[in-house]
Amino acid sequence: MDQPGARAWSPLRLAALCVAVVATTACAVAPLTGERPDGRNEPAAPGGASSQPQGESLEGTDTVEEFEQDIVGAEQLADEYWSQRFAGFGAPFQPIGQVVPYYRDGELSCGEQLIPRNNAVYCLASGEEFIAYDANWAFAVFQAVGDSFLFYLIGHEYAHGIQARLELDYSFSIERELAADCLAGAYLGDSVRDGTLRLDDGDLDEFQRGLEAVADDPDQPWFEEGSHGTAEQRIAAFFKGYDGSLAGCDLS
Questions:
Q1: Residue 16: inside a domain, yes or no?
Q2: E strand map for the chain
Q3: Quick check: is 193 in a domain?
């Protein structure tokens, strides 16, 4: 997946993903691997990503530097996308502004709640707003299955921030999570349609396989707090946004 005129971002693949809801509990997720493949405890210090020369492909690469570049690229893309959409709504927009890694269980908190390992969260609590991700877990997934995971990861968490800005209310967590999947799909689909992103062969199939990977266990009751949806539900929600833009997502 490439961004013409800026960096080139390689094709994505997805694996196990968990999100937290606004200032509430984070959902549990089984780690893809126990430790980072290279045995290091931390992938890199945050904020060290550098620009990639225009037109150079990152496909098939898996270094710390490329991981950080993709995180930065996904955040920038989400900032730009939602800033433009809010201008269309006739409303001011404040980007989330903080996407931070963490490395240990409980190293960060959302309000009074500690954020566990093997997780990614959107937090709005105690006057703070940020997206946080377990860098070791996310890097292991990135190395194992590819970097589209990172664009979906940031897109889904950013969508929770959009839900907060629009003050959308949901009776069940599954409704909130499927709506965030739809918004993440719109963010990626619209970016492809307007030329900001360019898909590589197989990316759509990789999105589908990734959504299958992040689905709830078949025995998970849909009404339980923390439910995200079955594979079929998550795929349908994501591609409803991807194909139909925001018109396919319920923003009321």
A1: no
A2: 99-102, 109-110, 113-114, 120-125, 128-134
A3: yes
